[in-house]
């Protein structure tokens, strides 16, 4: 014991001064005839339980009989009674395979299953012993995929008109073996065909992963940057099942976000991209090759939490632009305070001074593609550079008071750029001016196609779509109101675009309806949900907290 120490807590038996007293001395699981023979209580097993009783009292016990019971919904006792005969003081009697019970297929992995052993003697004395035994089950999860397109252009991606192999990895994170696992890949889109039948992954031992390849073909008319959704379904013996999903982008990846300064703009941008149904990736370092990306968004942050672009990083982006790339780059110090690289002149931006902490209302220039946009800035605001365009560059956005430029665009026949001094996540949505709209305009300037599901906000309003509570903990409910009988699907994505939940398609009747997501193995964070009801598609943000 001691200050701030938790004392040891346990149960102790109070022994009587007179009479016998029966207690459990030991137990052994026999799952050889009805299970896998590993001596533990596994799902879907028929178990024989050997029991040892000892007399720890002060007198002999005669005609001892013991009854086994359990309150667990996962246990069915099929042989509950055993006779232990007479026990002298200190004697222990072992009855082999004394009891029998069946374990349910859906036994939760590593759950503690309660049992009670009630012993009586010929004189009517009764002793009750409670004990727990751990339950073991298999649990399948989808851990990832990879693409082998060696028969195509061998760039590690699925391109339009290409046939490739997608390898799917399934892991057993449970503590019991998964038997005869059959895995199926389903393409939830009109452009990709899965050529392989379901594959037999066989038995998967606890803690191990099995990977097999499915052959797929992308149609020749698949749009560049198309997000192809897939479902992974795995079934094992004894009703074991798993359903998960993923997506891959056909052709060039539309957007790469390089979060060099670990700023919040990356999350904010990914939410916008998902609302616009644009594929994107986030990395914290700049890849040496950018050829698989259409556009790159570089986040450098602001002093003192900024990243100073190196000459090597600048040269990688120069090569990307010279080959027809598009680059958005934001940084509060990169245009004036920091050392310039070979990349900076390609933005046609001149840094005039290392400014102050005075970003306030930021508006779009009336002569450029963000005309009419106005935001109150609520982001990182320190030593913000002042910038002006060189001839050829165009003012895109400006701070109202004090007045200075905050973003400049440039384009020629080969490449396009947007350079900014603010952080994207600091833009506070106003009526008619949202970050999603701003991102859509930038993508349009870059030539990246998108579908803005929130442009028609009346659709969500008319359907009465509400997610509550939001933020949420373990459960979130989606309320909607249907005008007519419709097929409805709910999908939830994380910030990488991975499907973390799908309700599957359900046909719902007109009137008020609800969908519920009971969260299990999904960590706290920001997610996007997408509800498709008939021909209406609605997307919005979810936040899960601890």
Describe the protein's architecture and organization:
This protein is mostly beta strands. It has 4 domains: 22-136, Immunoglobulin-like, CATH 2.60.40.10; 140-250, Immunoglobulin-like (Sandwich), CATH 2.60.40.10; 257-276 and 287-446, Rossmann fold (3-Layer(aba) Sandwich); 457-544, Immunoglobulin-like, CATH 2.60.40.1930. The protein is 8% helix and 47% strand. The strands form 8 sheets. The chain has a 10-stranded mixed beta sheet with strand order 19-18-20-21-28-27-26-23-24-29, sandwiched between helices. It has a 5-stranded mixed beta sheet with strand order 2-9-8-4-6, with no helix packed on it. Strands 32, 33, 34, 36 and 37 form a 5-stranded antiparallel beta sheet that branches. A hairpin with a 4-residue loop joins strand 26 (394-399) and strand 27 (404-411). Helix 1 (265-275) packs across helix 3. The protein is elongated, with a radius of gyration of 32 Å. It starts with 21 loop residues before the first strand and ends with a strand. Mean pLDDT is 91; it is low at 453-458.
